[in-house]
UniProtKB/TrEMBL annotation:
Positions of the ACT domain: 338-408
GO molecular function: phosphoglycerate dehydrogenase activity
Name of the protein described by the UniProt record: D-3-phosphoglycerate dehydrogenase
Catalytic activity: (2R)-3-phosphoglycerate + NAD(+) = 3-phosphooxypyruvate + NADH + H(+); (R)-2-hydroxyglutarate + NAD(+) = 2-oxoglutarate + NADH + H(+)
Length: 409
C-alpha cells in the first residue's frame, strides 16, 4: 500500500519533549508526517514550529495558550504525553474544536515506585550515609534510622497514584491514612480522614498526589508544615506550585521535619542540562529529582503508545474516547464516509444538520450525538462522499465550530 492510500496520509504531526519513538512509529504506520523536537518550546517558538500542524504532542513543559491555539487554525487535537493537562488552555481548545487527550494511567506505577523508594531512603537516611561514605566517613550508627513497617503513611489525594501507593505501602507493613476532597473507596485497610489537619497530626510520612487545578496553587505552606509531627517526612511528586519550598526548607532546618523528597518545582528548566535553582539545594536530608516520577522506559513507552493511539483514532475515525474536553464517543471503524460536526451546545443543531443533509439528498447510515459542557459532537456515517456544497452548508450553520470529513475505503 502506498503512503498516499494510508488513512492518515496528509496529516502533519509535531511531537515535542522527547516523546517515545513508539509514538512516532505508530503515526508513521498510518501514513502521517511526523516531526520530533527534543525540548520544550516557548509560545512564539511553538507558533512558528507548529504552522500547518494537525496533531500536537507535548509533555509538561510546553504551554499551549489561547494565543497559540488562535494562531494554529489547522490544529485538530493535542496529546499530553503525561498525566497533567494544566499546561494546556483546555477550555480555549474546546471552543476552537481542538480535542485534548492525556495519559491518566500509564505512568502510575513508575510514580508509585519512586515514592516508595524515597520513603525507604529517607526513613533509613540513606542519602546522609551515602554522602558520608563518599567523604570518607564511616558512621555505622543506627540513630535516627527506622523501618517503614509499622509507620503511618498519609496520602493527600487518593486518585490513581494514591490508591496504588496505598496498596503497596500496606504490603510493606505501613498503616495508611488518606485525605481527599471527595469520598473515596478505601483499598485494603486504608482509612479516609475527614480533614487535612487530622491527617498531618497522625502520620509519620506525608505524600502529595493532588492534581494541577489552579485552586491547588500554594496548597501546602508553613501553616500545614507546622501541623506535621516532629521528625516526620514530606514528599511532593504532584505539582511544583502546590508547595511553598522556602517554608519547607525552614522546617527542615529547624529539625521539625526529618527529610523531604521533591520531584516537581514551581519553575523547571525547559531542557536537559539547563540550570536549575531551588531553595532546597544543598540540604543533606533532601532528595531532589528532576521531575522523573513517570520517567521510566516502561512508562514512557506505555504513554507513547496510549496517547498516540487516542490521537490516531481521533483523526482517522473521529473517536473521542477518554478526551478530557470533548464528549466521549468510542466510534467503530467505518468503511464509508464519516462526517464529524463539532458545534456549540445549543438546542436544534442536530435538526439543522439533518435538514442540510436531507436537502442535499444525503442518505444517513448511522448517527451519534454527544454533548459536554459548551460543546456538542455529532458523527454521521453516509453512504457516499458529500459534495463540497454539503460541507460548506454544514460549516455555515450558526453554531458550527468545525466540520471534518473522514473517508476509508
Amino acid at each position: 500500500m502506498s503512503n498516499k492510500s494510508l488513512p492518515a496520509a496528509g496529516i502533519k504531526i509535531l511531537l515535542l519533549e522527547n516523546i517515545h519513538p513508539d509514538a512516532v512509529a505508530s503515526f508513521e504506520a498510518v501514513g502521517a508526517e511526523v516531526v520530533s523536537v527534543g525540548g520544550a518550546l516557548d509560545e512564539d517558538e511553538l507558533i512558528e514550529q507548529a504552522k500547518g500542524v494537525h496533531l500536537l504532542g507535548i509533555r509538561s513543559k510546553t504551554n499551549v495558550t489561547e494565543r497559540v491555539l488562535a494562531e494554529l487554525p489547522d490544529l485538530l487535537a493535542i496529546g499530553a504525553f503525561c498525566i497533567g493537562t494544566n499546561q494546556i488552555d483546555v477550555a480555549a481548545a474546546q471552543n476552537r474544536g481542538v480535542a485534548v487527550f492525556n495519559a491518566p494511567f500509564s505512568n502510575t506505577r513508575s510514580v508509585v515506585e519512586l515514592a516508595l523508594a524515597e520513603i525507604i531512603a529517607m526513613t533509613r537516611r540513606l542519602t546522609e550515609k551515602d554522602r558520608g561514605m563518599h567523604a570518607g566517613v564511616w558512621d555505622k550508627s543506627a540513630t535516627g534510622l527506622h523501618e517503614v513497617r509499622g509507620r503511618k503513611l498519609g496520602i493527600v489525594g487518593y486518585g490513581n497514584i494514591g490508591t496504588q501507593l496505598s496498596v503497596l505501602a500496606e504490603n510493606l507493613g505501613m498503616e495508611v491514612l488518606f485525605y481527599d476532597t471527595a469520598d473515596r473507596l478505601p483499598l485494603g485497610n486504608a482509612r479516609q480522614v475527614h480533614t487535612l489537619e487530622e491527617l498531618l497530626a497522625k502520620v509519620d510520612v506525608v505524600t502529595l498526589h493532588v492534581d494541577g487545578r489552579k485552586a491547588n496553587s500554594d496548597f501546602f505552606g508553613d501553616e500545614q508544615f507546622a501541623l506535621m509531627k516532629h521528625g516526620s517526612i514530606f514528599l511532593n511528586l504532584s505539582r511544583g506550585f502546590v508547595v511553598d519550598q522556602t517554608a519547607l526548607r525552614a522546617r527542615l532546618e529547624s529539625g521539625q521535619l526529618a527529610g523531604a523528597a521533591i520531584d516537581v518545582f514551581p519553575e523547571e528548566p525547559k531542557a536537559r542540562g539547563d540550570k536549575f535553582v531551588s531553595p532546597l539545594q544543598g540540604m543533606p536530608n533532601v532528595i531532589l529529582t528532576p521531575h522523573i516520577g513517570g520517567s521510566t522506559e516502561e512508562a514512557q513507552q506505555d504513554i507513547g503508545r496510549f496517547v498516540a493511539g487516542k490521537l490516531r483514532d481521533y483523526v482517522i475515525h473521529g473517536s473521542t474516547s477518554l478526551s478530557i474536553n470533548f464528549p466521549q464517543l468510542a466510534t467503530p471503524e467505518h468503511q464509508a464516509t464519516r462526517l464529524v460536526h463539532i458545534h456549540r451546545n445549543t438546542p436544534g443543531v442536530l435538526a439543522a444538520i439533518n435538514s442540510v443533509l436531507a436537502e442535499e439528498k444525503v442518505n444517513i447510515d448511522g448517527q451519534t450525538l454527544g454533548t459536554r459542557g459548551e460543546v456538542g459532537y455529532v458523527i454521521t456515517d453516509i453512504a457516499a462522499s458529500p459534495t463540497d456544497q454539503v460541507i460548506e452548508a454544514l460549516k455555515r450553520l450558526p453554531d458550527t465550530i468545525r466540520v471534518r470529513q473522514l473517508k476509508l475505503g
